[in-house]
Design brief:
168 residues; alpha+beta; two-stranded antiparallel sheet; 6 strands; globular; disordered N terminus
């Protein structure tokens, strides 16, 4: 709901100023807009490396503080392992060819996480990851971003889906 409000607000501002949505109207610093692909690749690779190294506190630095507060601290009451397992959800095709919703039972199941695509065309950039499991299966997961104010200006940081609550 927040995203819809922000998008509608952004569209209203753009319509009122009658100029195309550029660097400042998105809230992102000009250098991020100009170097979006580089920035997103760095963000995605840093996130993937931190998760694969088991450094979940470092991996959280690639995520929006608002998302962490709402999902990790609020809904999941600080259950970090569950937070990351749910963040890395996906759809896997089983042996019968049926697609099944998949949540890793443990982060140890994951053999690798590779950034395969970053998208800077949309209003909010995203990154798609290829997640390979140790049992040979694999799936894709796209993480969207939201602009977060930092000391350097507004920067995109990853957010996951809202509302998932699986009790394992």
């Amino acid at each position: 709901m927040k995203k819809i409000f922000y998008i509608l607000s952004l569209l209203a501002v753009c319509a009122c100023t009658n100029k195309p949505a550029t660097d400042r109207s998105l809230g992102l610093t000009a250098s991020i807009i100009e170097n979006c692909s580089e920035y997103m690749e760095s963000l995605a690779n840093g996130f993937a490396k931190a998760v694969m190294a088991g450094d979940l506190q470092k991996a959280m630095t690639y995520l929006s503080p608002n998302y962490i507060k709402e999902q990790h601290d609020g809904i999941l009451e600080g259950r970090t392992d569950q937070f990351f397992r749910e963040l890395l959800i996906g759809t896997i095709t089983d042996q019968d060819g049926k697609e099944q919703f998949y949540v890793p039972a443990s982060l140890d199941e994951i053999a690798s996480i590779d950034d395969i695509n970053t998208d800077c065309i949309k209003l909010e950039p995203s990154a798609t990851f290829h997640i390979k499991l140790k049992d040979g299966r694999s799936y894709y997961r796209t993480l969207e971003t939201e602009a977060v104010k930092t000391e350097e200006g507004y920067r995109p940081l990853f957010v996951g889906d809202l509302g998932f609550l699986f009790l394992f």
